[in-house]
Amino acid sequence: MSRLADWGNDLYTGRRSFDFVGRSRTWYKVSAVIMVIAALGFIVRPLNFSLEFTGGTEFRVATQQAPDDYESQATAAVREVSGPTASANVSTIGGDIVRVQTEELEAGEIRDVSDALAESFDVQSDDISSNLIGPSWGASVSQEALRALVVFLLLTTLMMTLYYRNWKMAVSSMVALAHDMLITVGIYTWVGFEVSPATLIGFLTVLGYSLYDTVVVFDHVKENTRAAFSNRRRSFAEAANLAVNQTLVRSVNTTVIAVLPIIAVLVIGFAYLGPGTLLDLSLALFIGMTVGAVSSVFIATPLLVDLRRKDPEVVRLAEDAENSQALRQREAERRAAAAPEPARVGGPSTSSTQAKGATGPSSTPTGDAGTPADGDAQTVTGRTVHKYARSSGPRNQPKKTPRNRRRS
Fold it and tell me: Which of 5, 71, 150, 362 could bridge to 90 as Cys pair (CB 3.0-4.6 Å)?
């Protein structure tokens, strides 16, 4: 733990640093490949919308324990009524409830399918519930979700532009946000996870979390770049890269702490609860939070630096920082050259040899008139003070002699 704390402290102080900004092209290429793969999912395998969006009929069979072949039993019961080509989406909820989703059925067909399911699973008719959902409800939910998303993006862009007083920061955060959503939804397309109203709520929550993580990094970028413009010692890119390193440990810790309980919910949901609102919401949060933590480090800040690279004040800052660093380097080299050489083993040091053989004005001669003897020191006023005399206090007074007593 101490090494981890030292590692985080080194990142914050700048003694250790990862070049996130300098390798921005690498991150762009990797992200572009991932986003292309995610976008292909919409063509190869469209989103698997739940019954609330597509419309249909849902049956729930309450059993003591779902049999191992519950899927084949439920599908056979549905095809017995609706025909051999009828499709059914069969899953379990909590291990004892079999959920069967079919296309929209008539009232008579719903009653016949319920009787067939009761006979197939050997339960009473009262143990089977049916629910008919029209597609208009899903369409209204989708429209409201899209409207809320548009309003959220517009207000967020305006707020960040006013807060940071720079529209390029708002653009960078919005690009990172779009990056997170595209990858998250792309994972849903390729894996085939069901998209329910709870999933949409999870997507909207992911937008807020991803934006929050980006804002934390941008606050450090704002502080570091303001100091860089003031002292002219770091370029804009160096100050921004330092901000990413300073918030790296915090981003990792926050993401891990937030994802751990979600992982626990996912394990319980997949193992015991089965499909439902809790599982859909936690799955969307897990994917989105993980992707959002990556984008705030590898996408948002490098993109901001690239957008501001050609700004006149940023160009002048880079030139001043380069000159300042060159000046500090020359000063360090000058001090290193002026430093005394270390003493050699087995022989006198250079400084002691010079002290013994020096005859210049800096040496202390012995026996010359008007100069202190060996071991004595001379004050600014010219008064000679013995080497054993202190700089202050009663002992600094000259010792009284019989001659001094007669004079006093």
Answer: 71
Instruction: Return the number of other C-beta atoms located less than 10 Å from residue 274's C-beta.
Output: 19
Q: Which residues pair with 166 in a beta bridge?
A: none
- Tell me which residue has tokens 């599982």: 279
Question: Residue 184's pLDDT is what?
Answer: 86
Q: Is the dihedral of CA 185, 187, 192, 193 positive or negative?
A: negative
* Eight-class DSSP state of 384: E
Could you give the 3-state DSSP secondary structure of residue 107?
A: helix
| pTM of the predicted protein model | 0.67
Tens-digit pLDDT profile for residues 231-265: 888 899 999 998 888 888 888 888 888 888 888 88
Last residue of one domain, picked from the residues 300, 321, 342: 321
Q: Which domain holds residue 173?
A: 2-49+137-321
User: How many angstroms separate the CA atoms of 284 and 200, rounded?
Assistant: 8
Residue 163, CA distances (Å) to 171, 215, 218, 312 in order? 13, 10, 11, 22
Phi and psi torsions of 30, nearest 5°: -65, -45
Is the model's pLDDT at 397 over the cut of 60? no
Q: How many domains does the chain have?
A: 2
Give the end of a domain, one of 321, 350, 367.
321
248-257, 335-344, 349-358: least confident range? 349-358
